[in-house]
Amino acid sequence: MKETNSNESADICITDQPDNERREIAELFPNMDLTEVFAEYGHLSSEAIIGLILEKRHQIPLKGRNCHRLMLKACSFFVGLSVWWPRWLGGRVRKLLSSFGARVTGIPIDSLLEQPETESGDHPRRQSVKECMECSVCWETTTVDELCFCDGTTMTATSSSSAKLSTETHAFCRLCLERHARAAVEEMPLAKGGLGLRCMAADCNNPITLQELQVFVPSSTVKKLEERCAELSVVQANLKFMERCRSCNCAVELGASPNVLMVFNCPDCRLKFCRLCDEPWQDEHKGVSCEQFAKKQNRERLLEKRLSEAVVHCCAKCKMSFVKHDGCNKVTCPCGATHCYICRQNNITYAHFCACLQEKATKHPFKCAKCGKSCLLWQSSVTVEKQQMDNIRKEMVEEEKREKAKQKRPTTGNTPNANKKKLADEKKKAVHRWLKNRNA
């Protein structure tokens, strides 16, 4: 066996160099790793080896990319053996995990050399081998310390009596867990109560807690998940007077209705705005209704705001604004609340929509003669939004006309009481003139 330098990497390591016949067989199957076949069946003829390879072609491993294996000087006592390199051998074999698909578990070779057996008669190698399990998603075998588990015990205090918790614990490898966490950062629902991620196993309600995730997931991802979990906990608290900042999305419980406390002062970004009209707060707005304040500022801005409200929808539960680009008219918010995109009714099911008419209704609003419902599941929202915007423009024009007509009216003598007083004065003057003429 040819020794290699410690600074150089060795190719596939076998006890004897293959002869010309073995080289020809290896060239016939370039993608297969035939080292174990040559080591176990090298005494057979070339025809028998080829037949054996064809028969067991599905069991023979394929060559990995850049599959170069390191030769350790500490393993020189295996030189005389005509067997394949043991899979458990070598602490440096951990570098080959990517080539072997995580099927090699590395153990320091120094712990195997010249060590006596323990009192129980077991070799230290048997005690140092760690327990392995399969990932519930990719089914790759990994050591237990590299796996993350879902936990049903944390749900005991927070779950309702109707919740069905799984008594089985599922294991997940680091790679699958990182992908699952990245998806949960954006829009995937979290575990109930904001305790962490949902278990990736089917029909399992156990959470993967944030405490478990901190070991396997990058800190930046964990920080985003903590923010999402905190937000979900606030939403599920069902606070009556909760408001969110329009700038940083900070949630604050104000303890009073918008009619009582109009101004919202964000504790994080210090942004102030009116809770009724969402306009930036100014001192001129104090004691003035939102309509009067909007008229003073700019009528066009009020029109633009109302037109935007006709297009942008808002979740009644978490106050998140959204716009639907495609799909049906039953919209489900990430917080779990449902919303009809046609009539804006909340907490709906598919029974809210008319199943009699599909694409026959072109006008809005309409009412089905059979079921009496006025919303379609696949009705285009563009027509509805356009009609709502036209109605808003008409209302603004009519309101402006009424204000102009009100300004043209005289400021005095235009009330019923003033007219009565005027008639009484005229009667008194007429009586005085009649008495004066009579005495004359």
UniProtKB/TrEMBL annotation:
Residues 397-440 are annotated as: Disordered. The keyword Endoplasmic reticulum does not apply. Residues 429-440 have a biased composition (Basic residues). Coiled coil: none annotated. The keyword Zinc-finger applies. One of its GO terms (molecular function) is zinc ion binding. Pfam families: Rcat_RNF216 (PF26200). Keywords: Metal-binding, Repeat, Transferase, Ubl conjugation pathway, Zinc, Zinc-finger. Gene3D superfamilies: 1.20.120.1750. Residues 131-360 form the RING-type domain. Pathway: Protein modification; protein ubiquitination. CDD domains: Rcat_RBR_RNF216. This is RING-type domain-containing protein.
